[in-house]
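Quick start: read one record
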Amino acid sequence: MKLQSRDENDVKIVYLEGEMDTVTSPEILEELDQLRNDGVKKMLLNLEKLDFVSSAGLRVFLATAQQLKSSGGDLRVCALNKEIKEVFDISGFSTLLMVFDNEAKGLAGM
């Protein structure tokens, strides 16, 4: 699992690549928590290169969204491939999180 990020104005865009499962999810949660602890309030997760997400990975997204929201921040996700979109749709995460087709749409209004 690989995580990279870049800044776009006051938004941290985070690129996730690989598989998010019970083994990799704790590490990703720790890295996202560190970004929050460093003062990031707005995050856009680009999932274009995410190959797999388990329920453990979904919990990371939900926990991060709740923590950002409680501190006045915002979490959005974008660029879901077909497999990840299907997982989001089946699990109901498409309605729990703000999901966008691409980065430009995800960043709009943030």
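The chain has five helices and five strands.
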